[in-house]
């Protein structure tokens, strides 16, 4: 069944799409900064607190370097730094696009991101990735 949405003025549409556009602008600015300021050079970014305190890589270690590599169109290096972060980008873009489209159309934005089973599966995958990259046989996942 198709949902009928009342006609909206241009100002209302613009106002409703401002939050997704704001998120896109902030994300783009952060991505541009990380692309311009090399995380491989010491002194630009702080060390990962988890790595500093434990000596183990967290699931996010290497994500800045991966985004820097993606900013320079180097997918192979990005996957070498943090394949999990690179693999999640298409999903994040999809969810942002769905949010922006629903906002533009004036449809209610869903309050849940996904079914709880999918969120728990993602949580388990992040933990397994973090553990696996610190083992000898998972060393290829380390940044």
TrEMBL record:
Keywords: Membrane, Transmembrane, Transmembrane helix. Pfam families: DUF2752 (PF10825). InterPro entries: DUF2752. It comes from Planotetraspora phitsanulokensis. The chain crosses the membrane at residues 17-37, 43-64, 76-97, 117-135. This is Membrane protein.
